[in-house]
Amino acid sequence: MMLACQTKPKQEKETAVTTGTIQEDSILALATRPGPDAPRSAADRLVRALYFEHSTKDNPLRETKDRSLIDQFFAKSTADLIWNDTQKSSGKVNRSKINLLFKAPDTAVKKTWVEPAAIGGSKSVVYVTFLNNNKPGDIRVELSQIAENRWRITEMIYPDSTRLTELLK
User: Fold this and answer.
1) For residue 150, what are the β-bridge partners?
2) What is the largest CA-CA distance in the chain?
3) Dihedral angle, C-alpha 135, 125, 36, 71, nearest 10 °
C-alpha cells in the first residue's frame, strides 16, 4: 500500500511534464517578447527569409505576375488580399514608393533585425525592428502554423498600429 502511494505522485509529475511540452494557443506566450538569445524557430526563419532575401529585388508584396512567391510567405486569406490588390490598375497602396514590408520608402529603411519568435501553439509572433529615417520602428508579424514546422504570415502590424490587411481592403 505504501509503495502505491509513493509511485502515484511520481506518475502525476511525469504526466505534467509530458503534457507541458504541448503548447496551446496562448495569449500569454504570444505577449511575451523573447530575448535576443532565445532559440530560433521555423517561424522567425520564414520572416528572416522574407526580409533579407526578398525585401527589395523579389518582394512578394510587389509581385504582379506570379502569385507563388506571395503564397510562399502568406496565409491564403492574406495572400488573396495582396494578390487582388496588385491586380487592380490602381491598387490602394503605391508599391513603387512604399515598401509594404516596412510601410516606408526603401531609401528610408536601414538596419533591419528579425527577433526570435514567440510561439503559443499554432500561433506565433515575430518582431522586426528597423530604422526608418534614423528613427527606430517595430513591426509585429503574426503567423499561423499550417503544418509541422511550416508557418505563414497572417498579419503585419506597423509602428503606427495600422495593419497590412486593413491597407489592402
Assistant:
1) 147
2) 79
3) -90
Give the phi and the psi of residue 80 in degrees, each rounded to 5: -60, -45
Residue of 136, 138, 137 whose CA lies nearest to 127: 138
CATH class of 44-56+67-169: alpha beta
Pairing relation of β-strands 109-114 and 123-132? antiparallel
Look up cell 514590408; give the residue: 101
Q: Cα(107)–Cα(132) distance, rounded to whole angstroms?
A: 9
Radius of gyration, CA atoms only, the chain: 20
Q: How far lies 18's CA from each of 21, 38, 112, in Å? A: 6, 22, 38
Give the pLDDT of the chain (169 residues) as one tens digit per residue. 444 444 334 444 333 333 344 445 566 677 778 877 888 999 999 999 999 876 656 788 888 888 999 999 999 999 999 998 888 766 566 767 788 899 988 888 888 999 999 999 899 999 999 999 989 999 999 999 998 889 999 999 999 999 999 988 8
Q: Phi/psi of residue 122, each to 5°?
A: -95, 10
Please answer whether residues 61 and 101 qualify as being in contact, where contact means their C-beta atoms are separated by less than 8 angstroms: yes
87 contacts: CB under 8 Å, gap ≥ 6: 64
70, three cell numbers: 506571395
